[in-house]
Amino acid sequence: MNSTRVARAIVISSALMAAFGWATITTPMPVAASNNPLPAGLNFGLGNDPGDLLWMTSSGVPWKFRYTYLSAGVNTGNGWETWNTPAGQYASYYMTDSAVNGYLPVFSYYELLQSNPSSGSNESDRDFSNLNNTATMSAYYANFTLLMQEAHSFGGNVIVHVEPDLWGYLEQRAAGASPATLSASVASSGNADLQGLPNTAQGFAYALLRLRDRYASNVTMAIHDSLWATSRDLAIDTDPALDPNAVADQAGGFLNSLGISSNPYGSAWDLVFNDVADHDAAWYGDNSHWWDRTNSSLPNFARWLAYMARLHADTNRALVVWQVPVGNQYFLTMNNTNGHYQDNRAEYFMSHPSDLQAAGIQAVLFGKANGGQTNYTDDTGDGITNNNGVPTSGYQCNGCNSHASTVADDDGGFLRMAVANYYGPNPAPVPGPGGAYHPVVPQRILDTRTSLGGHPGRLGGGQSLDLMVAGQAGVQANAIAAVLNVTVTNTTSAGYLTLYPSGAARPTASNLNWVAGQTIPNLVEVKLGTSGGVTIFNSQGLADVVADVEGWVAAPSSPAGPDGLFKALQPARLLDTRDGTGGYQGPLGQGAALHMQVLGRGGVPGAGAEAVIVNVTVTNATATSFLTVWPTGGSLPTASNLNFTAGQTIPNRVIVRLGTGGQIDIYNHAGSVDVVVDVNGWFTDATAGQVGAGLVPLSPYRILDTRSGVGGFGSPVPGGSSIALPVAGKGGVPAMGSATPPRAVVLNVTVTDTTAPSFLTAWPDAITRPWTSDLNWVAGVTIPNFTVVEVGANGDVDFYNHLGSTDLVVDVVGYYN
Question: Which single residue of 70, 405, 435, 468 could bond 553 by disulfide (Cβ 3.0 to 4.6 Å)?
Fold first, then answer.
């Protein structure tokens, strides 16, 4: 390592043994785009070995990444491949344990320096000697191939961060020249996969990418950028004339030549990692490694962010800030002793997330780099420490670390507190078991236009009404939740409704959104209060409210039977009158109804289903009208499922009992309209032996709002893009590794600030996006829809926006387990 930096220690699993302005210089050249496998927005992770997994899962923080080192040398007999049996099993365990708990696994592959013979007087020489040793490199490529094979068997996304430090040493050795001028054993290693590649440092980078391409296309490859690689170390340099743009151009140019901008032998690097420090700043005993958080002296955060923004532009790659020191100047426990050293990077990063994101940074991974440094666990084994109530002064800190800690974490609990606050407060998980769903023929229980339900006249702004649900319209007295189709009409201003259990505090959530004069419905699954009722709150203006019961959920203590259990499906299209899907070609006319076969289609079995969840969309409407959906064979009920105006495209979720022959009927009241139906789940009937998931209703909780950054995404979702939203472990939904992990979640999804006509699709993470829709809109509208979606194996749900951009708001109201 550069002589101004301290060498990184070998890391082996214990379980197995980061208000100046700088002139812009040359414009960066365009670089080919790569697949960006990271979730949108800025997210956080930890260096976390197997022995510390329990801390991570019990921290209450929805961490997104989990990293560990793969190290100890490829030919020493002590490397990562030996830490479990059979060879390579350590990586397999790590990937599986990470994914089960909703974390994206990251491996920092740090092998070259620690392999034999490692000859030389400094790290750079030792790395270069090994890089040119034929026997060493033969073992190296075999070891890397083993990792790729383990990753391929895992099958999910995994990030492999290759050789931190090495690329910096090579850049210094090249002294401004191309890595193609530096020798390396590649084809000469004898590895059959690498024949034809040049025996250069550039060829070495190409070799790693080729092995990824041949053995594990699911792997995301990350190259490393060191702040000292250009011989001007931005982490400690105090020269005001040092231009971060010029330094970034030099560093980015070298990285691009290693296979970012082009690779004649295969794919490109996907990510660029950057590290800000090897130790907590206070560990050095002076001010040389502190960054000025006021950005008035050097080194500081503003200069580093300028460098990162330029590096992002030069490489056209998402940036990951890795191994960020854990120390802080907040808690009393940070008294600058072993395990409790102060640093200010974590505090600055957590208080300036938008600045990081603007610089192209999409992930920050905290972790101690060497022994004695601050960690987020109780590494020192000294329990809760508050330094006898005495603050410890340090750089820009005159007794500022005055807060008492209540946890044994060596950082006082700062990371778990700050990152949890970034993602938003999270209620404790509500464990199952869940209750069975019982559909009913739709029946109206509230209509303020006619005083049905006991509330005469429109609901005023800021007012609420209490609606008794249990004991009405076929809902049993012991029901724990109900499914209602709720419609607002005769609205006088823009507003929203919130439905929640009677007697509970009103949550920050919404079920319907509208503008003045609009009539709009939405399906609502709502937990019932202790009295069996729900409260309906109107935000502003006047609105008539109509509610139709669609079904109810029994208490888990009710006599158990095989009926009413949920089976999630990948969304599938059952009907599209525009193209004849489902057997009906052409719009549904005025006063007309169609019979749609459901049983035996779209993943619904040919027998054993009692009800289905479908998303019904209308388009090409010629008049103001409504649709009603009900079981075939029954009478048309006095109820509605969608309300629309001429020219409007609008969806609504419907849970409907299957009627005669496994069919449902769809009725259009006026004009003509095209109808599209997608199915995404079904409920079991009383056939013996059936299994499925029960519903656990929750008080509504907001887990995503791209307008404010709740949920970790702070900007609209662009057209043609998707985001992966962690839902397991959030809003009362248990984590995937819990005793009652979720099978599916019940969400209210709202789009707003829409810039173009588009649609939204929700589906389980890590599978191919289905060609279905959950919301449809035109530019400028705000529209909600009730969604039940299967949870991915990692606890995430994906949302895709087709065109334009849109802000996305998601409230969780329940889950199936």
Answer: 435
Give 256's DSSP letter: I
CB half-sphere exposure, 29, CA atoms < 13 A: 11
Instruction: List Cα–Cα distances, 673 to 383, 576, 620, 741, in angstroms.
Output: 67, 11, 6, 41
**What tokens were used for 743?**
């099978």
Q: 243-298: per-residue pLDDT in tens?
A: 999 999 999 999 999 999 999 999 999 999 999 999 999 999 999 999 999 999 99
- Mind giving me the DSSP string for 600-633? TSTT--SSSEEEEEEEEEEES--SSEEEEEEETT
Contacts of 207 (CB under 8 A, 6+ apart): 141, 186, 191, 194, 197
Query: Could you tell me whether strands 717-718 and 481-489 are parallel, antiparallel, or unpaired per DSSP bridges?
Result: unpaired
Q: In what helix (H) or strand (E) does residue 249 lie, and over which residues does it extend?
A: helix 244-255
Torsion angles phi and psi, residue 45, rounded to 5: -150, 180
What is the b/e burial string over 580-599, where b = at least 16 CB atoms within 10 angstroms of the residue's CB? eebebeebbeeeebbebbbb
Torsion sign over Cα 764, 770, 775, 781 = positive
**Residue 161: its H or E element:** strand 158-162
In this structure, whether the domain defined by 566-684 belongs to CATH 2.60.120 is answered with yes
Half-sphere exposure of residue 28: CA atoms within 13 angstroms, side-chain side: 24
Distance CA 462, CA 452 (A): 21
Q: Among candidates 696, 762, 698, which has minimal Cα distance to 731?
A: 698
Residue spans of alpha helices (H) in 112-165: 123-131, 134-154
Query: Helices 123-131 and 166-174 sit at what angle, rounded to 10 degrees?
Result: 90
Q: With contact defined as beta carbons under 8 Å apart, do 49 and 16 qualify? A: no
Q: Three-state DSSP class for 816? A: strand
Cβ-contact 626, 644 below 8 angstroms: yes
The pTM of the full predicted model, rounded to 2 decimals, is 0.59
> Mind listing the pLDDT tens digit for each residue in 571-630?
789 999 999 999 999 999 999 999 999 999 999 999 999 889 898 989 999 999 999 999
DSSP 582: T
Average pLDDT, the chain: 89
Interatomic CA distance for residues 122 and 126, integer angstroms: 6
Q: Which fold has domain 41-423?
A: TIM Barrel (3.20.20)
Distance, CA of 712 to CA of 706 (rounded, Å): 8
**For the chain, domain boundaries:** 41-423, 566-684
Distance set, CA 327 to CA 111, 132, 303, 366, 563 (Å): 27, 39, 21, 10, 54
Name the band, by pLDDT with cuts 50, 70 and 90, for residue 5.
very low
Q: What are phi and psi of 330, to 5 degrees?
A: -110, -45
Whether the CB-CB separation of 228 and 235 falls below 8 Å is answered with yes
CA 250 to chain centre: 33
Positions of E strands within 28-88: 43-47, 65-70
Order of strands across the sheet that contains 533-538: 464-468, 533-538, 495-501, 512-514
Given a cut of 50, whether residue 52 has pLDDT beyond it is: yes
Place of tokens 């999409």: 362
Please state the length of the chain. 817
Q: DSSP string of 425-479?
A: --PPP---PPBPEEEEEEEEEEETTTTBTS--SPBPTT-EEEEE-TTSTT--TT-
**How far apart are the two ends of the chain, measured CA to CA in Å?**
51
Give the separation between CA 666 and CA 263, rounded to whole angstroms: 56
Q: Tell me how far apart the alpha carbons of residues 391 and 333 are, in angstroms, rounded to a whole number.
A: 8
Report which residue type is found at 322.
Answer: W
Q: Which letter, b or e, does each residue of 310-342 get, where b requires 16 or more Cβ atoms within 10 Å of its Cβ?
A: bbbbbbbbbbbbbbbbbbbbbbbbbbbeebbbb
Q: How far apart are CA 332 and CA 485, in angstroms?
A: 53
Angle at 172 between CA 227 and CA 270, to 5 degrees: 55
